[in-house]
């Protein structure tokens, strides 16, 4: 019986890719289901570590132009916080079907790296991005109980809908691939130099402002 169930539940594949370079990247998620979605909503649940974040204001703008559909938990975050003061985020990214493949879905979302503490001996910090979890929401059809199980996700069926729906995840976990994001950081041995240059620049700019105020100001 186990062999029959395994044969019926075909594998789902998940791939993710980071596009662009530097602090501002695009995360591309692609999913190929083991079976036809049958009109179900397909999403990827992405856990973002403290070193990266999605800008909620940018996400809202993209959704207004129908470029990206996603729900961010929590929906209010501090985009200026450094990595060591931030916390994990949860992103539910709704995937769009591909034209040439009925079982293939994809979506992209902008990611931003946070500033990290200066490191010693290396000019970069490593941020591990785990592979997303594939979820299906079938409001008008039923999924096989042998292949899919209810997932603990308190989220709507789509980014345009506020009503909560029952999401499902596959019982046969796909092979996950982790991504490693390399974030440029400062070097600890440069602290004294940076502080001295900052103090010098601040004093010079302050002097220029005071000189201009004395010359052109009206007191």
Automatic annotation (TrEMBL):
This is Phosphatidylinositol-glycan biosynthesis class X protein. GO terms for cellular component: endoplasmic reticulum membrane. The lineage of its organism: Eukaryota, Metazoa, Chordata, Craniata, Vertebrata. Pfam families: PIG-X (PF08320). Keywords: Endoplasmic reticulum, Glycoprotein, GPI-anchor biosynthesis, Membrane, Transmembrane, Transmembrane helix. Belongs to the PIGX family. Its main location: endoplasmic reticulum. It is found in: Endoplasmic reticulum membrane. The gene is Pigx. Pathway: Glycolipid biosynthesis; glycosylphosphatidylinositol-anchor biosynthesis. PANTHER family: PHOSPHATIDYLINOSITOL-GLYCAN BIOSYNTHESIS CLASS X PROTEIN. Stabilizing subunit of the glycosylphosphatidylinositol-mannosyltransferase I complex which catalyzes the transfer of the first mannose, via an alpha-1,4 bond from a dolichol-phosphate-mannose (Dol-P-Man) to the glucosaminyl acyl phosphatidylinositol (GlcN-(acyl)PI) intermediate to generate alpha-D-Man-(1->4)-alpha-D-GlcN-(1->6)-(1-radyl,2-acyl-sn-glycero-3-phospho)-2-acyl-inositol and participates in the sixth step of the glycosylphosphatidylinositol-anchor biosynthesis. Probably acts by stabilizing the mannosyltransferase PIGM. GO terms for biological process: GPI anchor biosynthetic process. It is a single-pass membrane protein. Signal peptide: none annotated.
